[in-house]
Design brief:
heterodimer; A: alpha/beta; nine-stranded mixed sheet; 11 helices; 23% helix; globular; B: alpha/beta; eight-stranded mixed sheet; seven-stranded antiparallel sheet; 37 helices; 37% helix
Chain lengths: 401, 1066
């Protein structure tokens, strides 16, 4: 971004009083949310459009962003959902044959603010040490900028005189940000309806195995990434969306062969999602079911287990997960701030832990002993991230046969 | 999986050559450490003494022996290992393992091939098997055909069209390969490729012009767990060997879909091949679609895996070695975080740039165009949080003078076509040519279109140009300076552009508080707390590396491997760090070379991956509270920093600037030696042509001329006449304006070399080495023998006396290297280098004196006596060790191959045995100079050497060798009664002296120089033909005499023993 004048001074203020100074891109409106970080080195567009980031300000740890622009194909949902984006550098001249736009333009178009130029590693270290933080991302009103604030070093290093009042005001606002768990974030992102149709031939890799009979899968849309739907349709299944609050009868009426409870944002153990848990509890005795991410947590709650918050979450494309049945390690994409508590799974629920994280031992998968119901905390649909776990969809479809 | 082995043989990669450098010392050392951690006994064999892996405390048993099947078989018979790891010794180690398996040796002694099975190696290495495997799993490869002759190649090209790439089978660094744009080129390149391939097979394949070149480093264990450690994108698109490409990690222009598509392909490939360990997959990606091709797979650790290890912090070789003995990734801890497991993929939060280091500063006549044949001798890596900064730091790390991205070739001033030539053809100067074109207003698009370099990269260079323009035109404010530093501009560049003295820039910067912070390389983008003390500088807010607080000292490394400054200095730097640790002093390593052991994060207490320019090193020292700094072990790179660091009040540990300066300042040094009554060849330092001519006529020709302050004899020449001297001095002015040219009387006597350690009170001389070639051949290119063969006791005493007095009077603290020439029974001092030399590892090993440790501890104030060593010459060991130079001339078209005062070798080997003949024979075998009995030699001997060659020819004839010779030489042989076939000159029809070489009719060449420098004489073509045919070519009578001696030995009359057993034989 060579022309700095077009990018006003902006800052990121944390509830604990830490402030990081950068420049605004995307929309110049302010953002508020919970600050997290993602360590994927590619896939910023998929991250932006992942509904699971609703209510969050996302820091990307890889410093060079927008290198390959934005493409109409790499959308994981209809729009970006995150509250704000924090990066080290936004590439001024993206280069890729598929680029139809670029990140600054894309975020402007969707009215989402970003900030760049700040020390994203310092932010990450801070969150790793002290846990997730509420934060405010705000553009400094031109009127309050002192002369020193126009010097990029004095601004970036927080040494520009006269900016304390503004910074303090933003810190105060950060302290007042509504906690994620008090939002109905799932309700905001559950927007898909009808039958899913892939609109573009977009997979560069070899076609997946086809499953003989055309099965009908209902996707409970708690904020689904489109590649979940696509991973199923590309295997020959029919995919129908059901809103997150659907009652079990409504889903039954769709005559599904199987049900997938999808990923989504926020805390699974809140009133707004209670109906989904209830529906899941009712349906999992009758239908083959797959839970992904939030869906996995919902299945756990439906089974009587508890969930809890992780200190700073798992967000990235390099998370090793061990399949306890085979002993094999898989590299997975993850994006979650909550986990299923292993000790809380009722023995009589029939569920057992099937996968664990090799990083921290947390639960990464559940499988029912008798019923064709299983769930994974990670993202088998990838996008972004390794394609290694697409077999989960094959396993699920096999259970419908 | 079979049970865990108890005893494992690890095969090293032999001498450093282009395409196979220090990365395999790093790999082998890691493997030995891994074996120790796993409780497995390691037996290591390598012919290269200048390696850490051949240290007796790294492997359990060390053999420094030639890497041949008969030798390894004897080692196996003696040691009876139950396993062999074939994938850690580069292509040499891999080929040897295959040969051992095919010769039935492994089966005979029940040695298991560990890790990657033979079938996987064959599937990856054999072009046809590889193609079949890829076709089976549906991975696309370029249209290609394996051919064994030129007509076969022509027939295939008739089907697919030109251009095509030619890749010889089983070669390293793409030797003998190339791109053919025309039928003529096709014939030439295929012929040379067939000659280069040990199995006479080349692959002709579709040339993917302009496609992106992407690499993945992949690991797989016996339980089929697969991960990718890192991917890398080449700045130079397809067509330039990846070893000669500027490489960026991770990939920059790939979207997630492309990244994952190629990652998935790489995992499919490693699975289908059945590799257990590490593997490198090279892919080509169409910049305009999802189309890709699998180009090549290396079923072993490689230069790229060393780079990936350093780029990510993930120790690939160490993990590959553990996988080889049956461990799985999920059970191995991640050594970086010590909490998570090895089954994960590193996440980077920085950008890494690698730039190759080419030898064209030493070989200006070499063909600089880059293609499929690798030409670089080494590489530098730099890390930062912007691509621009990583790139600019890497450029500084190259140490080509003080060349920054602002450098332009003078020729480009008035010749824009020359700029375009470097851009479109790709040469070592391409990066600077792109910058020059941008400065002249060429658009990013045009450069990208004509070079096929992705516009993303060209735009980054345009950003650098934009900042140059801002620095030229705007007032320097904290903001502008901060932005320039974040794009990697050095203080000196900023000073030049903003018209401020560089020292003033530094002052302003510090005043304003603009200082670098140091971020950690932790494999996980800060997600987890990591234990690695591995840092890089950047201009950001938070510092991950607060200063160490305990007693500490910094070691300045030696930067990229180049001719004259090789792996020996890395060996010394590593030992210096270990010595500090042994004394309870925390070691801080600064270096820029990703291939080496010194940049392994667990070699030192802290590793700073930085270029070795004054600014970068000073910044590191500032960050660490300016600890004492050791510049003695990092070759000329580190020595050059002595003065600027001292000026900035850095305390040097060891010999101070005064000693260094005295040794390098000709006039002062002469006065110094006069005072001690020690003779040196008459001569003087001059700064102009007139002085040079008058000095030379006073002392008499021939004279040896060289610029001061050089290592590796750069631009050193023996000059016989006034005209040559004029030309030399005129050219040398460009070489060094600060330092004069030295002119010495050239004494053609026996050269003797001494490395000594001085603690300020006494001087320890572990051993004396005698050169086999007379003075005039650079010491780095000489064969040398320990102990000296016929050095009279009074000369030995004189050498000890001179060495002792020079050290004490000069104020040496630590190591010194002194070269003497013995002329007419008198000892003359040739040069004194108050620093470690390239013979330190060799001497340390054969004498069992830990030279670097003693020197380092001496710098810390310990006396030799306290360490249990007396002054004077150590008693000789009961062994003979011969050091032989190794050249990489086959890779460098157009380069004169004859040895002389300027160093040309890239590496060395050691032959050690109980007799001189056997040690010499092994050195010859290990350096590739030996040949089978009954082979034919081509002789072309200058008149001056004809008398001296007679006994040599007689000896060779008696040993059963046959001869061809040029006319005069043939007449001489006939007069001696030795059968000879006379061969005509090059332009007198065929067969001639060149064609008999090309056609494989001779197996070695002895060609002594007729004098004069005309490269267009027959001799030049004979020598080039020989190196391209990869047969021995000797240009020195002394080396030829040694070869005759060695070849007269019965070919199995040598010992094969662990190193200690030679010393201990009694």
């Amino acid at each position: 971004m060579p022309d700095l004048s077009a990018h006003p001074q902006a800052l990121l203020a944390l509830e604990d009083g830490n402030v990081f100074f950068g420049r605004a891109f995307g929309s110049t409106k302010d953002a508020a949310g919970e600050l997290c970080f993602n360590t994927s080195m590619t896939g910023y567009q998929e991250i932006c459009t992942d509904p699971s980031y609703r209510g969050q300000i996302v820091t990307l740890t890889y410093p060079l962003i927008n290198n390959y622009g934005v493409s109409t194909i790499d959308m994981e949902s209809v729009q970006p959902w995150l509250s704000g984006l924090v990066v080290r550098e936004v590439c001024s001249h993206p280069s890729n044959w598929r680029a139809t736009s670029e990140l600054d333009e894309f975020l402007k178009q969707h009215n989402i603010p970003g900030v760049y130029g700040l020390d994203t590693r310092a932010i990450t270290r801070h969150l790793r040490t002290f846990g997730f933080k509420r934060a405010v991302l705000a553009v400094a009103p031109p009127g309050i900028l002192t002369e020193e604030a126009h010097d990029s070093f004095l601004w970036a290093s927080g040494r520009a005189a006269g900016m304390e009042a503004f910074a303090n005001e933003c810190i105060a606002r950060a302290k007042r940000v509504t906690p994620l768990s008090d939002h109905n974030v799932v309700g905001e992102v559950s927007v898909n309806t009808g039958t899913y149709t892939a609109h573009v031939p977009w997979q560069p890799w070899a076609p997946p195995p086809q499953h003989a009979a055309r099965k009908r899968i209902v996707l409970v849309d708690t904020g689904a990434k489109h590649n979940i739907a696509h991973s199923l349709t590309s295997r020959g299944a029919e995919v129908i969306w059901a809103p997150y609050g659907s009652r079990s009868e409504a889903i039954r009426d769709l005559e599904p062969d199987g049900i997938v409870v999808c990923n989504g944002p926020g805390d699974p153990d809140v009133d707004a999602v209670a109906a989904t848990v209830e529906t899941t509890a009712a349906l999992m005795k009758r239908y083959p079911m797959l839970g992904i991410c939030l869906g996995h947590q919902i299945i756990a709650l439906a089974a009587g287990a508890r969930t809890s918050r992780l200190k700073f979450g798992h967000r990235g494309a390099n998370h090793p997960v061990q399949d306890l049945a085979s002993g094999k390690a898989h590299i997975t994409t993850q994006n979650h701030g909550f986990q299923v508590d292993a000790g809380s799974i009722p023995t009589n629920s029939g569920f057992r832990v099937s996968h664990v994280s090799l990083n921290d031992g947390s639960v990464e998968g559940l499988r029912h002993q008798d019923l064709p119901v299983f769930s994974v905390q990670y993202h088998p649909e990838a996008c972004p991230g390794p394609q290694d776990n697409q077999y989960v969809f094959d396993e699920f479809l096999k259970q419908l046969a | 999986m079979n049970s865990k082995p108890a005893k494992v043989l690890i095969v090293g990669s032999g001498p450093i050559i282009i395409g196979q450098a220090a990365e395999f010392d790093y790999a082998g050392t890691q493997a030995c450490k891994a074996m120790r951690e796993e409780g497995v006994t390691s037996i290591l064999v390598n012919s290269n003494p200048a390696t850490i892996m051949t240290d007796e405390d790294i492997a359990d048993v060390v053999y420094i022996e030639p890497l041949t099947v008969p030798v390894i078989e004897r080692i196996i018979a003696r040691e009876r290992p139950d396993g062999l790891i074939p994938t850690l010794g580069g292509q040499t180690g891999l080929n040897l393992a295959v040969a051992l398996a095919e010769a039935g040796v492994l089966e005979k002694y029940a040695v298991r091939l560990l890790g990657t099975p033979l079938s996987a190696i064959q599937k990856a290495e054999d072009r046809e098997l590889f193609r079949q495997t890829m076709t089976q799993i549906g991975e696309p490869i370029p249209a290609s055909r394996t051919v064994h002759s030129v007509p076969e190649a022509e027939a295939f090209v008739a089907e697919i069209g030109l251009p095509v790439v030619i890749r010889p089978a089983y070669t390293l660094g793409g030797t003998g390969g190339g791109i053919a744009h025309s039928t003529d080129e096709l014939r030439t390149v295929v012929a040379s490729g067939l000659a280069a391939s040990p199995i006479g097979q080349v692959l002709v394949e579709e040339y993917l012009l302009g496609w992106k070149e992407i690499e993945y480093e992949v690991m797989r264990d016996s339980a089929d767990n697969c991960i990718t450690v890192c991917n890398m994108e080449n700045f130079d698109p397809m067509g330039v060997h990846t070893g000669d490409s500027i490489v960026v990690a991770p990939s920059q222009t790939l979207s997630d879909r492309e990244y994952q598509m190629l990652r998935t392909a790489s995992l499919n490939i490693i699975r289908s091949l059945g590799i257990e360990g590490g593997c490198n997959v090279q892919l080509a990606l169409d910049p305009h679609s999802f189309a890709y091709r699998v180009i090549e797979v290396n079923p072993r650790v490689s230069r790229s895996s060393a780079l990936a290890s350093k780029a990510t912090g993930y120790p690939i070789a160490r993990m590959a070695a553990k996988i080889a003995i049956g461990r799985t990734l999920d059970e191995l801890p991640n050594p970086i975080t010590e909490r998570t497991t090895a089954a994960f993929e590193p996440a980077l939060d920085y950008v890494v740039v690698k730039i190759p280091r080419w030898p064209f500063d030493k070989f200006p006549s070499g063909d600089r165009v880059l293609g499929t044949q690798m030409k670089s001798t080494g590489e530098v890596m730099a890390i930062d949080r912007t691509l621009e900064a990583a790139l600019q730091k890497a450029v500084r790390g190259l140490e080509i003078g003080d060349r920054s991205l602002m450098w332009e070739n003078e020729q480009w001033q008035n010749d824009p076509a020359a700029i375009w030539q470097h851009i479109t053809e790709a040469s070592d100067e391409r990066l600077w040519a792109v910058m020059s074109a941008l400065r002249r207003g060429t658009s990013v698009e045009e450069i990208s279109q004509r070079s096929h370099i992705d516009p993303f990269f060209v735009q980054k260079l345009a950003n650098v140009r934009d900042m140059e323009q801002r620095l030229l035109s705007e007032t320097l404010t904290p903001g502008l300076l901060w932005e320039a530093k974040r794009l990697g501009f050095a203080d000196s560049q900023i000073g030049n552009l903003a018209d401020v003295l560089p020292a003033r820039v530094r002052e302003m910067r510090k005043q304003w508080g603009i200082v670098p912070v140091y971020k950690m390389v932790d494999t996980c983008a800060a997600e987890f707390e990591a234990q690695t003390p591995y840092f890089y500088s950047t201009y950001e807010i938070e510092n991950d590396a607060p200063s160490l607080t305990a007693e500490r000292a910094a070691v300045v490394g030696s930067g990229p491997i180049r001719i004259g400054q090789g792996i020996e200095f890395d060996y010394c730097s590593v030992h210096a760090a270990w010595a500090l640790a042994s004394a309870g002093v925390q070691s801080i390593m600064v270096n820029s070379n990703p291939e080496t052991v010194s940049t392994d994060y667990d070699t030192s207490d802290r590793l700073y991956f930085e270029p070795l320019d004054t600014e970068s090193v000073l910044n590191v020292l500032d960050n660490e509270g300016v600890p004492p700094t050791i510049v003695q072990f990092g070759g000329q790179t580190a020595i050059n920093l002595a003065e600027p660091l001292t000026l900035e009040n850095v305390a040097l540990a060891g010999s101070g600037v005064a000693a260094i300066d005295l040794a390098e300042d000709r006039r002062k040094f002469e006065a110094f030696l006069d005072r001690l009554g020690i003779p040196q060849p008459p001569g003087a330092a001059v700064t102009n042509v007139d002085d040079a001519l008058s000095i030379a006529s006073n002392i008499g020709y021939p004279v040896l001329v060289r610029p001061s302050y050089v290592l590796g004899g750069r631009a050193m020449e023996i000059v016989n006449a006034a005209d040559d001297l004029k030309r030399y001095v005129a050219n040398a002015v460009q070489l060094s304006t600060r330092h004069p040219v030295l002119i010495d009387k050239y004494l053609q006597g026996k050269e003797v070399e001494v490395d000594a350690i001085c603690d300020g009170k006494s001087v320890l001389i572990p051993g004396i080495m005698e050169h086999i070639e007379r003075a005039g051949v650079h010491s780095g290119d000489s064969f040398a023998v320990y102990p000296p063969r016929d050095l009279h006791i009074h000369l030995e005493q004189t050498i000890v006396d001179y060495t002792t007095r020079i050290c004490l009077e000069l104020g040496v603290l630590g190591l010194v290297n002194i070269q003497y020439v013995i002329f007419q029974d008198e000892v003359f001092v040739l040069e004194v280098n108050p620093r470690s030399s390239r013979t330190v590892p060799f001497l340390s090993k054969v004498t069992d004196v830990p030279m670097v440790r003693l020197a380092t501890l001496a710098m810390l104030g310990k006396s030799l006596e306290e360490m249990g060593y007396a002054g004077g010459l150590r008693p000789k060991q009961p062994l003979v060790a011969v050091k032989a130079p190794v050249f990489s001339m086959a890779k460098l078209r157009g380069v004169e191959t004859s040895v002389g005062p300027e160093m040309k070798s890239t590496g060395e080997v050691m032959g050690v045995d109980v007799t001189f003949e056997a040690a010499l024979y092994k050195a010859m075998v290990a350096s590739g100079l030996s040949m089978e009995a009954g082979s034919t030699l081509l002789l072309s001997i200058s008149d001056a050497d004809k008398d001296a060659i007679r006994p040599i020819v007689r000896q060779l004839a008696a040993a059963g060798y046959k001869f061809m010779a040029t006319e005069g030489t043939a007449v001489m042989l006939e007069s001696m009664g030795i059968p000879v076939r006379m061969i005509s000159k090059r332009l007198q029809g065929t067969p001639n002296v060149v064609s008999v070489i090309q056609d494989g009719e001779v197996q070695a060449v002895i060609n002594t120089l007729t004098g004069g420098r005309a490269v267009l004489q027959d001799g030049f073509f004979i020598r080039r033909a020989a190196v391209e045919r990869q047969i021995p070519c000797l240009t020195s009578l002394d080396t030829s005499r040694a070869l005759a001696t060695a070849l007269s030995l019965r070919q199995d009359a040598y010992q094969v023993r662990p190193l200690w057993a030679y010393r201990d034989q009694g």
